[in-house]
Amino acid sequence: MNNGKTTVILTINKLIIGGAEQQFLELVKGLDKTRFNTIVVTIYPGGELEEEVRNIPGIEYICLNRKGKYNFITLITIFRLLRKKHADVIQPFLTPATFFTLLPAVIIRTPLKIVTERGSSRKKIGRGYSLYLRIEDLLARFANLVVPNSASGKDYLITRGIKSEHISVVYNGINIQRLIPSPADVIRIRDILGLSENMKVVGISASLFALKDHDTFLRAAQIISKTMPHVKYLILGDGPLRQNLEQMARELDIESKVIFAGNQTEVSPYLAVFDIACLCSKEPEGCSNSILEAMALEKPVVATNRGGNVELVEDGKTGSLVPVQNPKALANAILALLNNPEQAIEMGRRGKEKVTREFSLERMVRNYETLYEENLQKKRVN
User: How far apart are alpha carbons 267 and 281 in whole angstroms?
Assistant: First the structure.
């Protein structure tokens, strides 16, 4: 400890826009700076969230500026950093930050080593990435805690050989006040997007990667368009599949109905124009920020019945759960809500109540602070 405080080092690859990165940012902001020396370490420079992190009062920001995928000097740099800062807690987010952080922490015997697991599946193309994951699974045996953000994630960790007693679930937290947009901002975004006041909007907020399965979203949009031709479909997020998805919208003859809005640092006014929010991931999610944010803005959610989605969306109460890669089922669930706006409004109201009660930012930060203090205390006693 330094100056009576606990020194916590939080590491991440890069401060881009993403679900894990947003939770990382909120944790860094929320930690009690009177009790915790908070140090943020990024492996790579840049990202849309970097400036915001740099400007957080009471933290130290360090970028390691890793050059190239074969540069392993990062391991030595982190080793030296852990010693210099006398870290009490080390907690990485995402791969390969977990590898580069955890290996030096194990060698130097940092008192509390926490692995942060963001999902409930690890399917990703690439030999290098797969190798990192295998090594991280081995290193996780030497961690004091592994923290998933859903019960589904905990179950998956157990299948990977992590002992249940070493797993603590901490659900994501949402800053509801940050999400509430001004009416003027919502009107401005509707104007920018060319949405008339009464136009119905079905939206999805997710990075444009294969696991999010935007294909199914577009195919469902085509089905809906046959009976409700004036509905618009708003896609928030960006990624390597954007051109493919734009081409698919043209081939499905719904190009004029689909709006690709890209990444947005201020997402709330865009979410506010949704009438219905979707998430049709074909791989298990952990605790989805996009679902929580939509629920916080009183939007009914239609999501696939995989992973942590079933812990957030109460089927028939706060939204609907549908099978994976089933455009017809997705379309039918959306149509049911479009045709019954009173039910949609009630689902949205219940969703906000659930988020406020169970997924507040304050609760998430408090849970992490408790994990740090209680586990460090156990180590001192032992």
Answer: 20
Q: What percent of the chain stands above pLDDT 70?
A: 96
Q: Copy the structure tokens of residue 69.
A: 């995928």
All domains of the chain in start order, with CATH:
6-173+360-381 (3.40.50.2000), 176-358 (3.40.50.2000)
Residue type at 293?
Answer: E
What backbone torsions phi and psi does residue 217 show, to the nearest 5 degrees? Answer: -60, -45
Look at the block and give the residue holding tokens 């609760």: 363
List the end-to-end C-alpha distance of the chain, in Å, as a whole number: 17
Percent of the chain with pLDDT over 90: 83
Helical H runs in 31-163? 50-54, 73-85, 97-108, 127-140, 151-159
Rg (Cα) of the chain, in Å, rounded?
21
pLDDT at 129: 62
Predicted confidence at residue 126, as pLDDT, reads 58
* Burial zone of 33 (CB within 10 Å; 0-12 exposed, 13-18 middle, 19+ buried): middle
Q: How far apart (Å, rounded) are the C-alpha atoms in residues 311 and 286? A: 9
Q: Where are the alpha helices (DSSP H) in the chain?
A: 19-30, 50-54, 73-85, 97-108, 127-140, 151-159, 176-179, 183-193, 214-225, 242-251, 268-272, 289-296, 309-312, 327-338, 341-358, 361-381
Give the residues across from 8 on adjacent strands: 38, 89
Distance of CA 13 to the CA centre of its chain: 14
Q: What pLDDT, in 10s, does the model give residues 7-22? A: 999 999 999 988 899 9
State pLDDT tens for residues 54-85: 999 999 999 999 987 778 899 999 999 999 99
What is residue 168's three-state secondary structure? Answer: coil
* 34 three-state secondary structure: coil
